[in-house]
């Protein structure tokens, strides 16, 4: 026995954690946390999480956002798919939620996930449409956490969505070594089309507080609510504008475009100057994303250059042109991929990630993608290769909505919620419940539009009223 021990010495804990366990898939690491308290403390420490991110960061994988969770159509085609294709996020990932709609919503409208913020050290921010509830999600471990309700924007109907809304961003504070979610909300506009009231609050992911914290700093105008926010270089970025033209009705023209940034460590807002010679009209046809850990500004077609697409990367404070895609002069395959399905000025194809040490760029359609392409900008005409036909790995009963990038990471989005919503009963909640019981049902339905907590409370109260009435009616019969 002594000879065996001398030939097989015990490995140090540092070697086991940093050299062996840190190279395993994220699901395996999460499982090993249950073996003992010592392993749980080691594998959950900030140092181990940073070590894991250093080994697995920068290796992009693709996850799909679908409306259903039926099986894949072709197992043989799926086995031939490249390694980045592996995770399908559907509504089944999330717990059943009770929410409220400002307008009547058809009962047959299914819930589906939508990307609200791009990848940030293993976590992404998803919105469960049409409930309006946001979730912090780790696609590699399938862990999700619903964000608490923030301050209301006052929106009551669709016509107010343009100036009464909230936009969220997900980032990482390197000083505190913690993920944060920043929420910017608006309450109306003035006569010149500028925000009448702006507010900002921050939520620390996986913290003991579990609530939003107000921030004094606010942006210099509106931030774009319909496009995902981007995290890069310690900041969250949005495309924004200082005002809109109120004379154009609901579809209002955005004026004085800008790039809004929020520092995760200092919790202050600022602006980033666009590349030189880029005016409002040119910036209006751009999209923000993240490539190789840097902010990317991707341009669409412009008058006189309808088939030119530029990829700009922000290095510190300087914009560099990473590549230019001349779809009109490139091969027919490049022209087919880059050409919009609606009109020549829309951005329909977006870069997903940089692979092969910066030699190629992954491209995919923004909505309802069908293929994933790899573009090589170093060649004269720009070669392009189809990496994956998404129709071959997605069941026909599933509607593929979006594709996005994730990476192996063990970052925790917070405590896993149960499958059912539980309503806590504090003293104020009990007092409010007593008052609501004295109101008629018509008034209660209007009060369901106040906030999500009231909606849950009133919905349970109405169910109890109907259940009690049915039981009394049964006894009388």
SSE map:
Blueprint: H1 2-7, H2 13-20, H3 26-32, H4 37-43, H5 46-56, E1 61-66, H6 75-79, E2 85-89, E3 112-120, E4 123-129, E5 133-138, E6 143-146, E7 166-173, E8 178-186, E9 198-204, E10 213-214, E11 222-223, E12 230-232, E13 235-244, E14 254-263, E15 269-272, H7 280-283, E16 286-291, E17 294-299, E18 308-315, E19 318-326, H8 332-338, E20 349-355, E21 360-365, E22 371-376, E23 383-389, E24 400-406, H9 427-436, H10 441-447, H11 452-476
Parallel strand pairs: 1-2
Antiparallel strand pairs: 1-24, 3-4, 4-5, 5-6, 7-8, 8-9, 9-10, 11-13, 12-13, 13-14, 14-15, 16-17, 17-18, 18-19, 20-21, 21-22, 22-23
Helix pairs in contact: 10-11
Could you explain the architecture of this structure?
Strand 18 (308-315) and strand 19 form a beta hairpin. The chain is globular. It has helices at residues 2-7, 13-20, 26-32, 37-43, 46-56, 75-79, 280-283, 332-338, 427-436, 441-447, 452-476; strands at 61-66, 85-89, 112-120, 123-129, 133-138, 143-146, 166-173, 178-186, 198-204, 213-214, 222-223, 230-232, 235-244, 254-263, 269-272, 286-291, 294-299, 308-315, 318-326, 349-355, 360-365, 371-376, 383-389, 400-406. The protein is built from eleven helices and 24 strands. The strands form six sheets. Strands 11, 12, 13, 14 and 15 form a five-stranded antiparallel β-sheet that branches. Strands 3-4-5-6 form a four-stranded antiparallel β-sheet, with no helix packed on it. Strands 7-8-9-10 form a four-stranded antiparallel β-sheet, with no helix packed on it. Residues 72-84, 98-108, 341-345 and 417-426 have low confidence and may be disordered. 32% of the residues are buried. With 477 residues, it is of the alpha+beta class. Helix 10 (441-447) runs antiparallel to helix 11 (452-476). The termini are far apart.
